[in-house]
Specification:
The complex is a heterodimer of chains A (219) and B (496). Chain A is an alpha/beta fold and 219 residues long. In chain A, 30% of the residues lie in helices and 11% in strands. Chain A has one domain: 3-Layer(aba) Sandwich (Rossmann fold). A 5-stranded parallel beta sheet of chain A has the order 2-1-3-4-5. The longest helix of chain A is centred in the middle third of the chain and has 13 residues. Chain A is globular, with a radius of gyration of 19 Å. The termini of chain A are far apart. The C terminus of chain A is likely disordered. In chain B, the strands form 5 sheets. Chain B has a 5-stranded mixed beta sheet with strand order 1-2-5-4-3. Chain B is 40% helix and 18% strand. Chain B is of the alpha+beta class and 496 residues long. The mean pLDDT of chain B is 94. The longest helix of chain B has 29 residues. Classes of the chains: A alpha/beta (219), B alpha+beta (496). Chains A and B meet through helix 1, strand 1, helix 3 and helix 4 of A and strand 8, helix 3, helix 7 and helix 8 of B.
Amino acid sequence: MLHILRQIAKCGIKTEPPPPPADEMVTVARLQKKILRVLGRALTIRQIDAGSCNGCELEIHALANPYYNIEGLGIRFVASPRHADLLLVTGPVSKHMAIALKRTYDATPDPKLVVAVGDCGCSGGIFGESYASLGRVSNVIPVDVAIPGCPPAPVALLQGILAAVSVAAPAAELDAESAAALRTEPTMGSGVARLPEGAAELAPDAPAGEPPARVGDPP
Amino acid sequence: MNVSPLGVSSATLACPVPAQRCPVNSGQLLTACRLAWEQGGQLAALWASDERDRERGFCVHVLLRDRDGLTLLDHTLPDGGARYPDLSTIFPVANRMQRAAFDLVGTESDTDDPRPWIWQAAWPIDQFPLRRDFAASPKWEPGEEDYPFVRVSGDGVHEIAVGPVHAGTIEPGHFRFQVVGEKVLRLEERLSFAHKGIEKRFETLSIADGSRLAARISGDSAVAYGWAYAQAVEAIAGLELSQRATWLRALCLERERVANHLGDLGYLGNDGGFAFGLSQFSRLKEDVLRLNRRVFGHRLLMDVIVPGGVTHDIAPESTAEMRTQCASLDREIRLLRDIYDDHAGLQDRFRNCGRVTNELATKLGLCGFAARASGVADDLNRDGDVAARVAVRFDEALESLRLIDVILDALPQGDIIAALPRFREFKPALGCVEGWRGPVWFALESGPTDAIRRCHPHDPSWQNWPVIEHAVIGNIVPDFPLINKSFNLSYSGHDL
């Protein structure tokens, strides 16, 4: 125990001051005032990898290290979209993840924010659009802030996340309806809209379909 | 392996390690695989290609590795209706690769397992993306398949479905647990959610541009992939790399290994309920990434390795900085290792958790550090549990620090990059690099006008994912994250 305490004391506090929000990353400023009123400075984030190479995930992990200490800013990563204020989405959105991403978005309570992460999340990146990739996140769900970079460094991620909740852009004055009209419209087909809600995080209570097979049944 | 008893001809294959290429018929394919297995060889990769434009139907490529080097068996199927022998009876790991080859190229094996593996209803099931006449339609919308998971029934048995959106910041995949109480009876993985058409994308890029895509197949292994791709390109070109460029690549690879092991050691502590470990190791990892940024211009070292050499040379002051960092990391890692080893609660979680015996590891072809933790290709008696994988990660992180020091001491002088020639002919080559997770393979065939005719990257996760299904049996559900993290496999590198 003593050597653990000694190590903690020796390391001291490594946390650096947070960067200022980056206004230029805001793609659509909507509902800012209302969201700020609801959230204050406590923000919960649900991260979704919609098909990335995992480079962005590594940098998102880094936000939790003592240098960036994102929890010290009142921002927390949560396990369910139902507990989230903001979806942090990396891409490109693979076709295989499109339905899960849409369901996760639907399962997130309003008001909600979406931040697209990385060159792939912003534009499809090197993978682009193909038989297997839908490209940028805003092709599937509305996006408020886009953070470029391959992958974006943790400081850029922080700037983008802070921009999503703290930018007082003129559009923030708009009412909910006109702000909604400003959003990037998803271009994915209508098939998605008919999908049942929820089930994104597939909790243990997810509905079971057919009756169970016996042990040893062939696949 | 010696293929002469099979009566097949063999030709040398361009590759940095000894490699041969043999055309085989179906009988010879099966015999060669059996022979390789009996002599301790393993299946490294299996993929297929569409050769109809060269009047050769389809070709199934089977890459075997043993102590002598690599053997690539090329088996030609005259048309889409022909089948090839099911190799999963010899190498169980072939099962998913064969299913993937069918989903992407339409080559069928004699298997009794017709389930898709990469296909998830995003394109019509009778269309094969890696065929040359494949044309994607904008009308195809994401769909949902009905995957036949195996269910277990009995008193109190229930099912837990997890994913593809996970509770943590990890890649997408689906796990189906059959449990009684909290004990796992069976786990079935369903991957390919991160499938984004990488192999097809390669065919639209020039050989030089392919390097950028290669570094983004699995972001945590950008160096290993970048290097393996560059190896294949340089083998095709017959390009001799300068000593300095090779050593700088090795430096990057070891720094990537250290960074990944540090990150995972932190998360392993955290998953064992020891948050102190995460904050300590994530601090050390950040130090490594920041120095990467200063020395090589990129935190994850993406695009530092390009065909022909490396993009960044190191200045004397960077050398000094890396040396200082190595010394301080070595000291801190040893200290933290003592803390992990002495922590009763942590050891209680690590020991006997997610065990993979040496026998199982060999049978399933487990590779990389996870195989070494099960005592494969190693005289040490390792337990194959989470504790063993943690121990191997500590050992390898420290060894990488030693290697970095050695590299910095003896770094040869010279150029760091050479010009690539133009590529004018069809020529196949292989690249392979032992990344932090295990061996990363690249099979590349050039075409005229600097084009990529076919490119197949192969991640060690193909070999190791099926092993996790076995490692969790009999463990409790809450130990799954710990077991999973102890392997930390790539989804993107596997799904392509």
